[in-house]
Automatic annotation (TrEMBL):
Protein name: Pyrroline-5-carboxylate reductase
Domain of life: Bacteria
Cellular localization per UniProt: Cytoplasm
Family indicated by similarity: Belongs to the pyrroline-5-carboxylate reductase family.
Enzyme class, UniProt record, top EC level: oxidoreductase
EC number: 1.5.1.2
Gene from which this protein is expressed: proC
Cellular-component GO terms for this entry: cytoplasm
Catalytic activity: L-proline + NADP(+) = (S)-1-pyrroline-5-carboxylate + NADPH + 2 H(+); L-proline + NAD(+) = (S)-1-pyrroline-5-carboxylate + NADH + 2 H(+)
Pathway(s) it belongs to: Amino-acid biosynthesis; L-proline biosynthesis; L-proline from L-glutamate 5-semialdehyde: step 1/1
Phylogenetic placement of the source organism: Bacteria, Bacillati, Bacillota, Bacilli, Bacillales
Summary of the function given for this chain in its UniProt record: Catalyzes the reduction of 1-pyrroline-5-carboxylate (PCA) to L-proline.
Gene Ontology biological process: L-proline biosynthetic process
Amino acid sequence: MTKIVFVGAGAMAEAIIHGLTKEKIISPESIYVTNKSDENQLNYLKERYNVQIVCDQKKALTEANIIFLAMKPKDANEALTSLAPYLNNNTTIISVIAGISIQTITNSLGNRPIARVMPNTSAAVGMSASAVCWNELIPEASKLPIINLLESIGSVKVVAEEDLHVVTALSGSGPAYLYYFAEQFESAAIEHGLNKVDARQLFIQTMEGATQMLKKGDVEPEELRRKVTSPGGTTEAGLEQLMEHKVNEAIFACINAAQNRSRELGKLFET
Ligand SMILES: NC(=O)C1=CN([C@@H]2O[C@H](COP(=O)(O)OP(=O)(O)OC[C@H]3O[C@@H](n4cnc5c(N)ncnc54)[C@H](OP(=O)(O)O)[C@@H]3O)[C@@H](O)[C@H]2O)C=CC1
Ligand SMILES: O=C(O)[C@@H]1CCC=N1
């Protein structure tokens, strides 16, 4: 049975564990969690998902088939140094850490199969938009099982490692941008008299409907936008404000800043 150890047990680890256990891809008895010090969080994960808390670090790490690295970039060096002595040569490392390169991980853990994944927190509902890259030590035969594992938490694209910076900016961070839009649209609607429940429900359904239309893939977003926008109508009035406030520039600046930060984090914690 495949044994998975999560080193780091915060928001992203929980979202992946939620997805994996919900889809029954891996039995919770085979999922182990450990972190730096927060015992309450480990107990919470055990209670909620039935996963195992690592008691014997050496045994758990030596027996692991897959180790997920799910700590913040600033904590990676310390965590990797403490893991290194216990790793089995065949263990596959799957890192979700933003910015930290396969080379940096290799420098601490030695030459071994390493994959980097950029998921997002929608993994909790099986809707992560994940991208994965790997080093040449991941055997061809292991690639599909890794993709299958990740598909249990959503969609998966295989990308070049260099592209993970922009992927992080777009889909890793992406849910936060959309939640920010949700907050702002909801507040604006409330200011104009709608109650919170209706405002939220209408906005969610609008996003869902627009997403479904985009997903059909037969009409470009620009054309879909045009179909909503009657000349001299309400949409045109609204869009004019978005353009006047240079929302397009804000979005370019947002993606640029996020992908730059991913590169900076990689450099800052390079070993
Ligand atoms: N949140 C998100 O939307 C996404 C996050 N990521 C990436 O996932 C990673 C984790 O992010 P997130 O879950 O949000 O962060 P959290 O702060 O929620 O969790 C970080 C976890 O790492 C643990 N940790 C810290 N130091 C060590 C150590 N030395 N050894 C073992 N565990 C340690 C912490 O333990 P303790 O609490 O005890 O200190 C905590 O459990 C980051 O690298 C981030 O870039 C990727 C995609 C999306
Ligand atoms: O904000 C971050 O750094 C992480 C990476 C992607 C989403 N959250």
